[in-house]
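SRR1L protein
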Amino acid sequence: GGAVLRRLREARDDLLSSGFWAASAGAVRAPLSGSAEPPVRCVCYGLGRFSGCPAARYQLAFLLLLLEELGVPPGRCSLFDPAFSAQEAAVLGQLGLRLLPENEEGKHSVGGSATLFYMVHCGKALYNNLLWRNWAKGELSKMVIVGNSFRGIEERLLSRTLERDYSYIAKVLKGTEEVALPAHPRYLDTFNDTSVHWFPLQKLKELSPEVWDFVEEPTYQECEDLEIIRKEDGAE
């Protein structure tokens, strides 16, 4: 664990000395200068094997800087990735972070608390499930998501595929504010296509009433490239 923690500190120093963190801080603070409440807790999905993967290590170092910046105590940040090893779970514990007890498939309720979701390079179904679970104006307006650009998802998918497979992403687009993290030559693969998203209450109120009527749980029957590890699959 000691070697992993040392490499994590090096990644943190790197993010600071390269200027990437300073350049990203504006995007990270953007929701707060808008209407979003400061998050009081954080949920992180899909971080990956940070003991061996440099990109995952940089993403974890960025998360720790993010918690500091926003004043969220490590003990109020919960993580889940079925890939975590016992050693990685122990390292996260040493950092004061918590592990979620089970695979929620992204279906985590904000439960009325302003929550930051840190989901860098997660599958589209995970974002869609998260939106479904919190499908109400009051709940969505309490969420900030750091993850794959929703605009990018919209641009890359045929609109009929987006509406069929990821209907909650499709429906929330017009109620979303999004600021991209800056491009940096050293972290192109680590944070490419990553944006900070939030859902101002005023924008959500402007969506048509029927947007809120359909609240069926997503199933992904026709989805060929489902980038999500389901509960019943276990850690494949």
